[in-house]
Amino acid sequence: MPQETEQVITPRHQWTNGGDKVLILKVVNNDLTSHGGFVWPKSGPVRPAKFSREPDCSSGGLFGWAWGFGLGEGKFPDFGATWIVFAAHPDDVIDLGDKVKAVPNDEACRCPEVVFCGAYSEALKLTIPGHVAWVKMAASGAATASGASGAATASGDRGAATASGDRGAATASGDRGAATASGDSGAATASGASGAATASGDRGAATASGDSGAATASGYSGAATASGDSGAATASGYRGAATASGDRGAAVITGECSTIEVSATGLACVTSERFAWRVRPGAVLCCRFGDKVALMKSADVSVKDGEIVKVQRCEIVSEWSW
């Protein structure tokens, strides 16, 4: 009788999704500065002033979340800030638990490289395919994962995948599938048409990329992204983010100090007192706080595409008051 071989799971920080680089997601200030005042380039090679291969933070390096896993670990994920995706050779990526660091390799003449700089929702378009592929590989057919850092995948139509442990990842790739991540820093992704992704833990990320998909993030600093046509994204936790980038998409935020974004044919709805709006040409936003109601159109806001304005009690302000 042939002996079964145990599946070898490639660690997240070594996963290249069929290519030769690991994609690492990072958030920086809008002036492109990060910890210690280091200034990131908008594109091209990036070299930190201090780095080593020691698996710690103090020895320096370029820090982030491999393929978006562990989002929020070590740094608050400000969805209204600037997001970077940088690529590094897997031999130059060091695992730090829920985050990673990448370093230059002078002997091999290699250096990490910035491949994207912009909005969170656009950065996801680069990292989500590799994120989903890793979950499928690691889950090996499991529909439920209850331990920390577990992975669950459901690939058939109307399938359900659930990851309940912290840092868990659930992916449903079939039509009308459902993916749920309930632990902190969990990631739920539904890529099929009419799929539903729900992340209820703090710093959770829910992404629905298929048409008519629904993404919901209810925990603190959660992010909900619906990129397919007629998609719906809802973020109800404090400092959450809801983005609907497909045609006729709808984004809803109810939590304070959250960020919202919709496309030119989408509608944004807000009921919180303070929020941030990433303005896109043609976008429309409906805001209600108490008895006050306002309809805002991007054409009436004098900012560039992708810029963020702050709103308080249905009025645009320079800074929030408390």
Descriptive notes:
Residues 147-194 are annotated as: Disordered. This protein has one helix at 120-139, and strands at 22-28, 44-45, 62-66, 82-88, 93-95, 100-102, 113-118, 144-145, 151-154, 160-163, 169-172, 178-181, 187-190, 196-199, 205-208, 214-217, 223-226, 232-235, 241-244, 250-253, 258-262, 267-270, 274-278, 284-289, 292-297, 308-312, 315-317. It is mostly beta strands. The strands form three sheets. A ten-stranded mixed beta sheet has the order 8-10-12-14-16-18-20-22-24-25, with no helix packed on it. Strands 9-11-13-15-17-19-21-23-26-27 form a ten-stranded mixed beta sheet, covered by helices on one side. A seven-stranded antiparallel beta sheet has the order 2-7-4-1-3-6-5, with helices on one face. Strand 5 (93-95) and strand 6 form a beta hairpin. The model has no long low-confidence stretch (mean pLDDT 88).
